[in-house]
Amino acid sequence: MQKSTWRRLAATIATIASVALLAGCASETTANHTVTLATHDSFVMSKALQQQFERQSGFKLRIAKFGDAGTLTNKLILTKDAPVADAYFGVDNTFLGTPGFAKTAGSYEKLDFADVCVNYDREWFATHKVAAPQSYTDLVKPAYKNLTVTENITTSSTGLAFFALTVGDKKQTPAFNFWRALKANGLKVDAGWEDAYYTDFSGSSGKGPYPIVISYSSSPADEVRANGQSQTAALTDVCFRQSEYAGVLLGAKNTAGGRALVKFMGQQAFQKAMPESMYVYPRLKSVALPASWARFAPAAKRTIETTVTIGQRKTWFAFWKQLFG
Predict the structure, then answer these.
(1) Beta-carbon-side half-sphere exposure of residue 5 (alpha carbons within 13 Å)
(2) pLDDT digits (tens, 9 = 90+) for 268-312
(3) Are 265 and 89 in contact (CB under 8 A)?
(4) Domains present along the chain, CATH in parentheses
(5) Which residues fall within 8 angstroms of residue 38, CB to CB, at 6 or more apart?
(6) Can you list the alpha helix ranges (DSSP code H) found in 136-203?
(7) Cβ–Cβ < 8 Å for 299, 87
(8) What are the backbone dihedrals phi and psi of residue 311, each rounded to the nearest 5 degrees, phi first?
(9) The pTM is what?
(10) What are the pLDDT digits (tens) for 105-116?
(11) For residues 174 and 52, what is the distance between their CA atoms, to the nearest angstrom?
C-alpha cells in the first residue's frame, strides 16, 4: 500500500476517533447541564424564578415531585445507590431521623419554617352554632365528634409534626391516651396534607365535610374571602415548629448543579417568594412578610421544636399502626 494511502487511512481513523470522543464529551456535558430537584407535592417555584436560576447558574432545572415529605424521604433512601435527583428540598425535622437518610443526604441546610397547628372553619362553627375549639386538647370532647381530619404520621410530615406536638407538650395527658381518645371521637386520617386540607377540610377549596384540620398557623392567610375576612383560624396557643431542609444528594450525577440550586434557594429572590407560594416563614429574616400575615398568619405563641429520633419513630409508628391499621 502506498504511503499516501496509509496517510489517508490514518487520518480517517483519527477523525472517527475524534468524533467519537467529542460525542462522548457532548453526552456527558448534556447530562450535567440539567440539575434535578426532588421535592414534595406542595413545592412551588414560579417559572420566573426557575428562569432566573437557569440564567444565573447555566443549568437547566428539572423538578420531580414524590408525594408528601415522608414519601419523598423514603424515595430518597430507597434510591440512594442510583439517586433520582441531584438535590432535594422538603425533608423536615420530623423526617431527618429516618433510618438511612444520613447516608443518602449528606449535609443539609434549613431554608424555612412553619408552625403546625389545629385549623378550623369559622363559618362552619358559626352556622352550626357550635363553639369553636380553643386548644388541640379540646378535640377529644363530645362536641367535636366526627369533625377532625389529620394526616398519617408514617407518610406525612404535617401529621408526624402534630403527633410530636402531643408527645412533647407536657401540659396535657399522655400522648398515646390522647390519640386513643381522638380515634374514639371519630378522627379521619388521610395520607397527606393536601388530601386533608384541600379535599376533606370544609374551610378550603374542597369544601369537605370536616371543619377541623391539622394544618399551619399561616393557612388562614390563604382563605381570605371577598369581605376581607379569613374563613378559617388557627389555634396558636401551642404548635409544632417544623423546619424544612435542602441539600445535595450523595452520589448525585450533577453535584455542582445541586450546590448551585441549594444556594439559590437560600437567597433573597427565592426566599421572598416562599410566604405567598408555600405559606412558610423564610429563613432570611430580612424578607418582609405579606401584610396580611400580621393579621391572619401569626406565628405560634408557644412552640415545640425537636428532631424526631430513630427510636421515637419506631415506637410511634408501631403504636400508630396498631391503633389505625
Answers:
(1) 2
(2) 999 999 999 998 999 999 999 988 898 998 889 899 998 899 899
(3) yes
(4) 32-113+243-291 (3.40.190.10), 114-242+297-324 (3.40.190.10)
(5) 64, 66, 72, 75, 76, 84, 85, 87, 88, 89, 249
(6) 157-168, 175-184, 193-195
(7) no
(8) -65, -45
(9) 0.81
(10) 888 999 999 999
(11) 49
